[in-house]
Amino acid sequence: MRDFADIWSYLAQTPLIWLTATLIAYLIGDYLAQRAGRAPLANPVLIAVVLLAALLWASDTSYAQYFEGAQFVHFLLGPATVALAIPLWHQRRALRRALLPVLAGLVAGSVTAVLVALALGQWLGLGPTLLATLAPKGTTAPVALGISESLGGSPTLTAVLVILTGIIGAVVVTPLMNALRIRDWRARGLAAGVAAHGLGTARAFQVNPQAGAFAGIGMALNAMLTAFLAPWALRLFL
Amino acid sequence: MIHALTLILACQLAGETLTRLFGWPVPGPVLGMAMLFALMLARPQLAGQVVPTGEGILRHLSLLFVPAGVGIVGHLGALGTYGAGLAVALVLSTVLGLAVGALAFVAVARLVEGGKPDA
C-alpha cells in the first residue's frame, strides 16, 4: 500500500478532489437546511461555504488551487443566467396582464434598494471597490458577479453580499408586508423577487403560489434592470 | 438535452460577443437571457425543448454560488473592517426596496385596475 501523503499529493494536482468536495459540501448544506425546516438562516450555500473554507484552511490549500476544481461548477453561472428566460416565459401571460404594476414595482424597488445601499455605504466610509461590490447585491448571483466584475468590484465578496441580502429579504418580507397592510399577493411576491432574488422567490413560493410566480418575474426582470442601473447609480457616488 | 444546452450556450456566446463588440455595460449572459426569451416567444416549439434542461440547471442554482462564495476566505480582513457598515447598508436597502417596490405595485395596480386588488 502506498503512503497516503503520495496519494494526496497526486489528488491535490487534479480538479477532481475540489470539485467533489464542492458537491459534497453543498449536499451536506442542503441536508442540514432541510432538517432545519428550510429556516432562512439555515442557508445551504452559507453552510457549504463555511465547510469548504474550514477544509481549505485545515488542508493548507489556496483559493486558486481550490478553484481549479470548482471552476466547473462556477462556469455554469453563465448558462444559468440565460436559463432565467424560462421562468419569465412561463409567466408571460400573468406578466402581460399586470405589466404596468410590475414595471412600477420593479423600477421603484430596484432603484430604492441600489440607491439606499450605495448612499449608506458611502456615508459609512466604504471605498470605490466596496461600493462597486455592493451595487449589484440585490440581483441574482450569476448576474451580480458579472456586474461586480465589470464595475471593478470583488465578485467573490459580491457573492457573499448577494446571499446575505437574500437571507435578510426572506426573513423580513412577511412581517414587513403585514405591517404595511399589503394584501395583494402579486405585489408581495414581486417585491420579494426584486429585492431578494432567488431566496426571496423561494420564500414567496412557500407562502403563496401567486406570490411565488410574481417573485420569479421580479427576479428575472431585475437581473436585466440591474445590469443598466448599477453602473449608472455607482457613477452618482464616485 | 444536447440541443437545449447548445441553444443556451449559443445565446450566452452571442450575448458575450455583442456586449464586448459594442462595449455595452450589460453582462453577456443577461443579453443571452433576453435573446432566449425572445426566441421562446417567437417559436413556442423551441420552449418545449429548452425547458427541461434549463430547469435542470435552475433547480440547483444555489450550488453554483458556492465556488464564488468560498472566495470569502480572501476577504475576511475587509469584512472585519467594514462588516458593520456593510450589514447596515444591506439590511436597510433590502427593507426599503421591499416596501417601496410593493407599495408602487399596489398604487399602480389600483390606478389601472380600478381599485380591485387581486382581480
The ordered string of helix (H) and strand (E) elements of chain B is: HHHHH
Shape summary of chain B: extended
Amino-to-carboxy terminus distance of chain A: 61 Å
Rg of chain B, alpha carbons: 20 Å
Detail the poorly predicted runs of chain B.
Answer: none
Query: What is the count of structural domains of chain B?
Result: 2
Q: Give the overall form of chain A.
A: globular
Offer a few descriptive terms.
heterodimer, A: 238 residues, mainly alpha, 13 helices, 82% helix, B: 119 residues, 2 domains, 80% helix
Task: Outline the structure in words.
The complex is a heterodimer of chains A (238) and B (119). Chain A has 238 residues and is mainly α. Chain A folds into 2 domains: 4-74, no CATH class; 82-237, no CATH class. Chain A has 13 helices and no strands. Chain A has helices at 4-11, 16-35, 44-58, 63-75, 77-83, 85-90, 92-97, 99-123, 128-134, 141-151, 155-179, 185-207, 209-237. Chain A is globular, with a radius of gyration of 20 Å. The model of chain A has no long low-confidence stretch (mean pLDDT 89). Chain B is an all-alpha fold and 119 residues long. Chain B has 2 domains: 1-59; 68-119. Chain B is built from 5 helices and no strands. Chain B has helices at 2-22, 28-42, 44-59, 66-70, 76-113. The longest helix of chain B is centred in the last third of the chain and has 38 residues, at 76-113. Chain B is extended. Chain B starts with a helix and ends in a 6-residue tail after the last helix. The model of chain B has no long low-confidence stretch (mean pLDDT 87). At the A-B interface, helix 2, helix 3, helix 4, helix 5 and helix 6 of A face helix 1, helix 2, helix 3, helix 4 and helix 5 of B.
